[in-house]
Amino acid sequence: MAVSATRNEVLAAPERGVRSFAPVRTWLYVLAALVVAMVAIGGATRLTGSGLSITEWKPVTGAIPPLSESAWLAEFEKYRSSPQYRLLNQGMSLDEFRFIYWWEWAHRQLGRFLGLAFFAPLLWFWAKGYLSRGLGLALLATGALGGLQAAVGWIMVASGLEPGMTAVAPIKLTLHLLIATAILAILLWLATGLRDQRPPSPTRPLPQAGRAGARFLLGLIFLQIALGGLVAGSKAGLAYNTWPLMDGRLAPPLAGLFAVSPWIENFVDNVALVQFNHRIVAYAVVGFALWHAFAVRTGDPATARRAAIVAVLAVAQMALGIVTLLLAVPLWAGLAHQLLAMALLGTSVVHLRLFAHPAPLWSH
User: Fold this and answer.
1) How far apart are CA 199 and CA 188, in angstroms?
2) What does 212-259 look like in DSSP terms, one character per residue?
3) Measured between alpha carbons, how far is residue 314 from residues 13, 82, 250, 288, 359 in Å?
């Protein structure tokens, strides 16, 4: 514990006279909410087939939408040259194009706003002495990850504009989702670690096995979100719309699970294996969350409460996933499933942060 505390102090303990962390903490929570909104609108662009409606990446001038009928026709003409239009949306009207355009434009515009909401306050907080050197560097690294997220977003869109493609590449969509998930987790981890005073010590000992369990559970949730990205990218949710069986079996035949060659591509492109993996890991998340809540029930009451909330969210998320599958992924269910996944992730991050590191990472 002493070694860990020393490491944290060297990393980011604020210098004497640094101001209260309360405004910074509030700002980080607002940023986390904006990231969740980005994930939700990103999910809507995917479910409405809007992600490829804007065929160019213009970080500055792209913030201005078409303002005249001629400008709309010019944008529509660019989309009509895309493979998605020719292979999937042939005959789409201008009004139908406007509908999908606005979804993608809103997603990109929120991304621009999020960048501004991150960097402008960051510079102000640092200049006014709210941030220690270590915390400021950690936030700069988070901002760099946000820049990478934007670049991966365009790489993802570009993959859907290649000849013969009508959607983005599943692996690139999954990477885009995972970076957003990582940014959300980092923001919540940093915000939860900001304390102006040391919190009260747990009333009961924290079991070491419980700490390891909280870490493993968060890893499982990250894996499940990645698998969910592959399900979304490959449209595997539109197949095998029954539960608990898949086409009358607990699992499709092995030959069906590995029908694609080379075999490694089955994990990305074979809807049977992609959906099966998502189902199996969902059971693992729920089972482990319930075990973890049971394992820490007699320890510190606050820790036990948080573990129970994580378990309830995991069960609710699996139930909503089943409903989403049975209904063949309607827009409302798909978005709710994605948002609940972010809630489960966020709660797990906060739980692990307070469980594994009861003392604040950054405190006066």
Assistant:
1) 17
2) HHHHHHHHHHHHHHHHHHHHHHHTGGGS---SS-BTTBSS--HHHHT-
3) 35, 40, 22, 10, 27
Q: Which residues contact 109 (CB under 8 A, 6 or more apart)?
A: 63
What residues have CB less than 8 Å from 355, skipping those under 6 apart? 206, 210, 211, 214, 303, 306
pLDDT in tens, 265-281: 999 999 999 999 999 99
Domain ranges of the chain: 17-196, 200-364
Q: Where do the H-state alpha helices sit in 81-207?
A: 83-87, 94-127, 133-159, 170-193
**Which tokens belong to 332?**
């409302």
CB atoms within 10 A of CB 219: 12
| Helix, strand, coil abundance in the chain, percent, nearest 5 | 70, 0, 25
The 10s digit of each residue's pLDDT in 329-355 is 999 999 999 999 999 999 999 999 988
Q: What DSSP state is assigned to residue 90? A: T
Does 288 score more than 70 pLDDT?
Answer: yes
Tell me the C-alpha distance between 42 and 239, whole Å: 22
Task: Measure the CA angle with vertex 184, ends 342 and 279; round to 5°.
Answer: 35
76: amino acid identity, one letter: F
Could you tell me the end-to-end alpha-carbon distance of the chain, in angstroms, rounded to an integer?
Answer: 18
Assigned token pair, 360: 């604040």
Q: What is the pLDDT of residue 14?
A: 44
The two three-digit tokens of residue 155, written as one number:
């790489």
Please indicate whether residue 357 or residue 236 has the higher confidence score (pLDDT): 236
- What is the C-alpha to C-alpha distance for residues 103 and 16, in angstroms, rounded to an integer? 47
Contact residues for 295 (Cβ-Cβ < 8 A; gap 6+): 207, 209, 210, 213
What pLDDT score does 174 carry? 95
